[in-house]
From TrEMBL:
It comes from Rhinopithecus bieti. It is a multi-pass membrane protein. GO terms for cellular component: membrane. This is Solute carrier family 66 member 3. Keywords: Membrane, Transmembrane, Transmembrane helix. It holds the Pfam family PQ-loop.
């Protein structure tokens, strides 16, 4: 019984996370405008999700404890691309995506880097 309830909670969390940004993405696509989206806040959210995901992977937490983060990161990347697409230059997104991808590897180079990033993320929240 407990295992079934826990499984239901895990999968419902994944379902909610999968649908979390869909209304915002569909509104941006329908309006064909990125007006109202803040690039700095989106980048901060992406960085936070990336640090949390990398931290949990680095320390070997079970995958069910962090499966929602890749979903949220993918949705934020779609929003990031929408911002640049509707502002007229998708190529400007390249450095941001390059930094996000490279930070995935940099965070795990040394234990103190991931710990410092996690501590800084908590202070930002």
């Amino acid at each position: 019984m407990e295992a079934a309830l826990l499984g239901l909670c895990n999968w419902s969390t994944l379902g909610v996370c999968a649908a979390l940004k869909l209304p915002q993405i569909s509104a941006v696509l329908a309006a064909r405008s990125a007006r109202g989206l803040s690039l700095p806040s989106l980048l901060l959210e992406l960085a936070g999700f990336l640090v949390f995901l990398r931290y949990q992977c680095y320390y070997g937490y079970p995958p069910l404890t962090y499966l929602e983060y890749p979903i949220l990161i993918a949705q934020d990347v779609i929003l990031l691309l929408c911002i640049f697409h509707f502002n007229g230059n998708v190529k400007q997104a390249t450095p941001y995506i390059a930094v996000l991808v490279s930070s995935w590897f940099v965070l795990a180079l040394q234990k103190w880097i991931i710990d410092l990033a996690m501590e800084t993320s908590f202070q930002q929240c």
